[in-house]
């Protein structure tokens, strides 16, 4: 039975790569429906796990950031920050200063905040679609809560390793954006919109209501993808999909250790949290696990890509290009992680556990986020006042 379902899934995937994409999606949905009927108890439990993950972890982590960021954009705070960072952003990534703003916000809040902020800026006509694509090459990142807390402390039992992964992840994002700038034509991708200096009467209540409404809708989309992919992962495990794939690769004379890594990467690329957990439980060396986890965190997984696709659906951003960005981000992060491990540029023992509580406390993180925004806004206004005189 499992082999039969495996063959159907592979055949369906081959159809998807041809001109019969629509039919393959229909067949896939029917197959998933069949598996839901065959494994109702397992599907129900995985859906519950997905709901718990979304409601107790994702919503408390992301919803406040989404609401605050939407309000900041409506109040035109990013404009001042954008002007201050414009020279640096143009030099590194060939974007306006909004690129630096999205990058900073994404560092704090993690996936898929970078995509959400970029979509909001495009809808507000602050940036063009082309600039949005360029910004996403370096501003779609995971946050310290997940990398240092969940992966470093929770999965690898060492918060210092979480810092190591976080640094590799961020350096990979910066490298990705810089390389994309080098390999694309220089052209005017900025919006010809004058920055507003007028003092209008701001209806804070109206802005707050709209920000909450939009942010709740976005969180709802994210929850749907988390639940769906939780069920899909469970169904694939129940039909031994990756076990059969591993056996098939071995029969094709692919060395067992390589086939194991291929199956692990494929399984891990479905959903980032589950993927990092799978890799952390491997019997491989710590350095190998670190490199693989670094790739998976930066690639983000198909669940996150699905969430981003939903968020960017109205922006006309090329999703295939975004997936390519995440793939190269993963490669750069893994490469940087490998280099740092080889040359020992980062001594993880220098980090003390007392700093972990500061990074992992959501209240402190939110306060730091707001303080940073306030400081950047004040600095930018001071900077341009000095330039005027």
Automatic annotation (TrEMBL):
Q: Respond yes or no to whether keyword Transmembrane helix is given for this record.
A: yes
Residue spans crossing the bilayer: 25-41, 53-75, 95-114, 135-155, 161-180, 216-236, 290-312, 324-346, 358-379
Q: Which UniProt keywords apply?
A: Membrane, Transmembrane, Transmembrane helix
Q: Which InterPro entries match?
A: Spore_IM_YlbJ
**What domain of life?**
Bacteria
Full protein name: Sporulation integral membrane protein YlbJ
Species this protein is from:
Fervidicella metallireducens AeB
